[in-house]
Amino acid sequence: MSAPRDVAMMQRALEAARQGRPSPNPHVGAVVAREDRVVAVGHHERAGEAHAEVAAIRNAAGDTAGATLYCTLEPCNHFGRTPPCTDAILEAGFARVVIGCADPAPHVPGAVEKLRAAGVEVEVGVCEDDARDLIADFSRHISTGLPYVILKAAVTLDGRIATASGDSQWITGEPARAEAHRLRDRADAVLVGVETVLADDPSLTVRHVEGRDPIRVVLDTHLRTPPTAKLLTQRSAAPTWILHGPDAPAERRAALSGATLLEVPTAGGHVDPAAAMKALGARDVVRLLVEGGGRVHGALLRADLVQAAAVFVAPKITGDPEARPLAAVGPLASIAEGWRLVRPKVRQLGDDVLFEGALAR
């Protein structure tokens, strides 16, 4: 069991790691400490900029010799956009390095061994579950080339995302909607199906909180998206990508010149979800928030392409069996065949409740 001091310092490093926008790099945080005193904190702000360890060393202003360095992820041991962090750690003279989790795919293995060979005490695995959760999106992308997919929805107590006519505004209250916009801010891209575009004309921007707009992605096999749709005409620094099939009419392609059109294969008459995820992953979409509708959710679940879920539950009941469900997957023989949240986090937001966590079956 890890010492309480190490756990407390690593939690501080994890808190720092959640800052910045390092995608496609992972979120990483670091703390320089002397016993119970925090000397300096650092995080990886953006790809190409200083890694968390180097940022913390700089912030320590020379007070590192004999100190302990806490880092949420195994330090890099290679030259990339920046020099190896292992070299910076050795030069700083740390006596001890505490690591949250190992790098899931190091360019050059051996960081821990290099530090130990130089006489540095190294411990790996403090707050390991939290450290791995922090880089789950990076791990997924670097190991498969696919994005980490988060299914997001607002539902009633009877699991409905809209009435039979398509009305869904508003299932949840303002606190829940603000948190939904925070999820958008943390994602590289947000995805919906064309039916959602036609029914709701969504903006898919960050408005209720301070943040930046994600890339907007639409699955639209036949390019039915109207050229007047908000996601094409609004002012936003983020682009809109429309993934369509090879049979999309030429006149529709010309009409949607305001978007980036990406042709992908189809399956069963619709954009193939696996091909869509491959296309997004190849364009460095690491964290993808999928906001529906139910058919899109169902297609991604059927294809085993969803890694997590964030479901806002409102204290309302439609009572309508024809109202639209969270996910149109198809019939299941038993409850055991369904999906579940692993180690779910539950938060109350006004009158609504958010359930979020990794998804397993």
N- and C-termini, Cα separation: 30 Å
| Strand line-up across the major sheet | 11-10-9-8-14-6-15-18-17
Order of helices and strands: HEEHEHEHEHHEEHEHEHEHEEEHEHEEEE
Q: Which regions are unreliable across 5 or more consecutive residues at pLDDT < 50?
A: none
DSSP strand content: 25-35%
Mean pLDDT: 94
Total beta strands: 18
Estimate the helix proportion, in percent.
Answer: 25-40%
The gross shape turns out to be: elongated
Number of helices in the DSSP assignment: 12
* Cα radius of gyration in angstroms: 23 Å
Structural class: alpha/beta
Main pleated sheet? 9 strands, mixed
Question: Layout of SSEs?
Answer:
Blueprint: H1 4-17, E1 29-34, E2 37-43, H2 52-60, E3 68-73, H3 85-92, E4 96-101, H4 111-117, E5 121-124, H5 128-134, H6 136-144, E6 148-155, E7 160-162, H7 174-186, E8 189-193, H8 194-200, E9 215-219, H9 230-233, E10 240-244, H10 250-255, E11 260-263, E12 266-267, E13 270-271, H11 273-282, E14 287-290, H12 294-302, E15 308-313, E16 324-325, E17 340-349, E18 352-360
Parallel strand pairs: 3-4, 4-5, 6-14, 6-15, 8-9, 8-14, 9-10, 10-11
Antiparallel strand pairs: 1-2, 1-3, 7-16, 12-13, 15-18, 17-18
